[in-house]
Amino acid sequence: MRWPGKILYFGEHTVLRGSKAVAGPLNRFGGQWKMEGTRSQQQRLHEWLGWLRVQQMAAALSVTYRLDDFSTDLARGLYFAADIPTGYGAGSSGALCAAFYHRYAHSPQPARSPGQLAHLKTVFAELESFFHGASSGTDPLICYAQSGLLIQPGGHIERTDLPTLPEPQAFFLIDTGLTRSTGPLVEAFLVRCEEEGFRQNALRQLITVSDVTVDTWLNGYFHDLFDAFHALSALQRQHLDFLIPQQFYALWDDLLDTSHTCLKLCGAGGGGFILGYTKDSTRLPAVLPQHTVLLV
Q1: Residue segments in the chain with a per-residue pLDDT below the cut of 50
Q2: CATH of the domain at 252
Q3: Number of folded domains that form the chain
């Protein structure tokens, strides 16, 4: 079974301060279990196994895992073969955690009801903390559910259908070629939120416009989507420029001046992918001739 990566479409950072967020599987990338792996391909898995044994013996995990079976499979050459770019916020560790839970948890649960989603989010936060030191569990949950997820203010999570844009409209990703770590970027955002001026003005605008954009897309109001996306792009450029790689400032500004294409953060920012929206995907080669562009 192939486990997809993930993409956070809307709600980056502002979800920490009460906005909605919407995410879904990034099926362009994924990973699956394979055998006959090299020691380097298995290295982190052996380290993870040791960590899991300690956690399970200390009763620190919400779920019991078949770790002896995992150990046996590693001895037979098991590894996780994935093409999900690491350091991009695309769910490289999330897909691995989803695959591990599905294969080695006793009686793995489906990800359907809000109660199941809430429980699994806790389970995945425990598993993924090995890789990041701390985890919300959201990324593995998206990879495991393999459906759109809507995160409401207060943290309530529910499945949602992600509308398909009518052609030639499209979401797309720009590969910045830069890896990044989520933690310092989140910390930078939270520090900015401590400034009263930012909190009372910019943050309120960002939350309002982000929520409008989410509702516009999920309700299928495609004729209004560009205006909402454009407003969010302009606000992020004005108030969250510290999360945008500086070499993309000029491109961001140039596209804001068009009537058909604009950009926004994708996840934590700082590198990885940048998310774009266009009313006409046939124009992308002309306006982005020097960039790797992936339609999603």
Answers
A1: none
A2: 3.30.70.890
A3: 2
